[in-house]
Every structure is written in C-alpha cells, then in structure tokens.
Amino acid sequence: MDTIASFFSFITTPVSWVIVQFHTVYGALFGDDTGWAWGLSIVSLVILIRICLIPLFVKQIKATRAMQTLQPEMKKIQERYKNDKQRQSEEMMKLYKETGTNPLSSCLPILAQSPFFFALYHVLNSIATGKTIGVIDDDLLTSARKAHIFGAPLAAKFTDGADKVAQLGATLTDVRVVTAIMIVMMSASQFYTQRQLMTKNVDTTVKTPFMQQQKMLMYVFPVMFAVFGINFPVGVLVYWLTTNVWTMGQQMYVIRNNPTPGSKAQAAYLERLHKHVTHHGKTRGRGEKAIVKAIVAKGRDRNEFERKFINGLNKAGLAAQADGTVAKGEAAAVAQTEDGTPTSAAAPKRQQPKRQSKSQRQSSAAKAGETTSLSKSDDETTSLSKSDDEPEDAKPAAKKAAQKPGAGARSKAQSGQRKGPQRPKSPSKK
C-alpha cells in the first residue's frame, strides 16, 4: 500500500493543504489537538471531493442504464462470434460507438477518487511515522499525532503492535476495537448500497449477465474492504466510511426520484406521482415533466408500470401530454390508451351481460321452441294457400316432374340404399 501511495505523492500537497484549512476552522471550535478537529477535517475533505464528482456520478448512472439496455445485443454478439474473439471485440466496439456508450463510464467516480484516497493514505502514514509532508509542518504534525478518535490515534492501524500504539499515546485494545467497528460499518454500508441497487433499481423484465456481475460484486466488495481495512489508518477508515455513507445517501435520492425503467423503484415512484397528479391535477418540477414526457413518447413500448400509470390518469379524467404536462376537463377528451393510440375518454364502458340462472335459461329455451313451432305452422299454412292458388295447368307439370326417371332411385338412395345401377337378381331355380 505504501508503494502505491508513493505514486500519488504529487497530489499530497493539495490534499494536506485542504485538510489544514478545514482544521483551522474546526480547531477554533473544538481545539487544535482534538480528534473532532482532525476527524471533521477529513470528513469535510470527502464531502468536498464528492460534490466535485457529482457530474461524474450522473454520467455513471446514465452509463450503467445504457449498459443494461445493451446487454441483450451484447449477448447476441457473443453467441454469434463465440469462436472469433477478435471479431467479437470489433462488433462490441462498433455497438458502443453506435449507441454512444462507454463501459468505463460506470467506474469514473471510483477512478477519480483513487488519487485523493492514496494521497490521504500517504499523508496519514507520514503522520504515523513522524514525518512532515506537504504543508503539514512540525507543529501540525505534533497536533495530528495527539488527535484521537474514540480513543484511537488518527494514524494507528489494526495491525500495529503495542509499542507503536503506545508511542501514539493509546492502548492496543482501544485501537483494535475502534478499527474493527469502523471496518464492519464500512463493509456493511458498501453491501447495503450494492444490495439497494440490485433489489430496487434494476429492470426485472430483462435477465442479463450484467445483473449476475452486479450481484457478484455485492458480495465481493464488502469482503475486499474487510481484508484491506485492517491495513488502513483510522483516518483513512474515516475517509472511506464517509465516502460509503455519501454514496448510499446519493443513490437513495437517485433511486427515489429518477428510477430505472421497469424496476420496483419505478413502480413506487409512479404510484406516488399518480397520487400527486390526481390530487393537484398537474405535474411539478422539471423532473416529473421529463419522466411523464418520456412515458408518453414510448407509446406501445411502455412497460407494465407505465401503462398502469397512463390508465390511472385516464380513469381520473386526465391525460398525459407530449410536453410532460397533464390536461383535464375538456382538454382530456382525447386521451391515450395503454398502447399509445388515441381514444375518447368519455366513451361508455361495455356492459357485460348478466348471467342467467338455470330456470331462466330453461324458460327462455321453451319460449324459443314455441316461437319456432308457430313459425313452422305459419309457413305450412302459407305453402298450402300457395298450392291452392296455383292454376290447374301447373299441377300436371308438377306430376310429370315427379315421374321423371331416376327420381325413384334418388328417393330410395336417400332412404339408405346404394346409389347407381342395381345388380340384377339371379333367376330362381325351378
């Protein structure tokens, strides 16, 4: 770790200067040699760095969602060119270029924090060994070595021996208890942050290898923090614990207000948005308008939660507009259905026929039978009347037509006999 930190020695001076400036402020409140002054200086350094990294965090969110969307296409490329790794890499890079996606964008915040992390480790390690570094002179070095956080020196480690801890004015038990608690809190916060991302902010309708990778990282990262944490000074543990807590809070805010489409977080967000819009009759803020606008633009490609949201607005007499606003009253007469096609909001619902009982069905069948028999008798009466009205000249013609050859054969065939010429009977023997 010392060798790695030495590569980032060029940034130790800016980091030490920021810590000293915060220490000047907190030292006036809590005392120059207290752990509160030095500990809060490290916490403030973390907050300052994370505020500067917010644009990268937003870019990370967009890159992560873009990677989730591309997973089905990436899987097809891997299966198509599984025997040609070079062609597979070329097709992957072509896909990234066409969609404007960079796989490394999801790692930008961690990569950007690394120089500050190792620079802070280098500063605290120099304090532990009694060496001045950056803008920390002898007086500040002496003050930092006296600073304790819950009884543990700022520069002490879990692996330090009793003699080294005694030189810093503490006991080995205090150092190991404090560092162990901080390591557990650091690992737990990292696990909860990753678990929150997997259970609430992942599209559950698409099963991709990316989800399996994220699930694996949920267990790998906490173990890595626990293993490497025993070699971190208390000040670095404060830095990393503050970073994890900031990341957890920042992610909770993003999941609540800008969830991934198709995730459980989106279902909860659209439910809250539906209650607000139906109560006030309008959307509030650019964020809500942007989400409603995106849902309207999807049309038939909406997921289950988005269709439920649109249908709920239609039932309430409201209609989501293309600009993200919501119209009501006469303006909502033409609303959008779940598949994106316009329909009349005031159209009456189709009434389902009531189910009849068995006795009702039998009575209706009996009535229908009586009606049929009556209609048949009427038809017979009509036919008899027609035959009486026919002229006498037409009757012999009808008789002749009835006596045509083949008529008897057809009638017999209809009664069950075989059609065609019949085999002559053999003469009887005398």
On the 0 to 100 scale, the average pLDDT is 75
Sheet of most strands: 2 strands, antiparallel
Radius of gyration: 42 Å
Put simply, the count of helices is 17
Number of strands: 6
Give the proportion of residues in helices: 55-70%
Reading the helices and strands in chain order gives: HHHHHHHEEHHHHHHHEEEEHHH
Which shape, going by the Cα principal axes?
elongated
Percent of residues in beta strands = under 5%
Separation, N- and C-terminal Cα atoms: 130 Å
What topology, given as strand order, has the largest sheet?
1-2
Structural class: mainly alpha
Low-confidence stretches: 330-349, 380-417
Fill in the keyword field for this structure.
elongated; mainly alpha
Quick recap of the structure?
With 430 residues, the chain is mainly alpha-helical.
Describe the protein's architecture and organization:
This protein has 430 residues and is mainly alpha-helical. Helix content is 67%, strand content 4%. The protein is built from 17 helices and six strands. It has a two-stranded antiparallel sheet with strand order 1-2. β3 and β4 form a beta hairpin. The longest helix is centred in the last third of the chain and has 32 residues. The protein is elongated. The protein starts with a helix and ends in a 16-residue tail after the last helix. About 13% of the residues have low confidence.
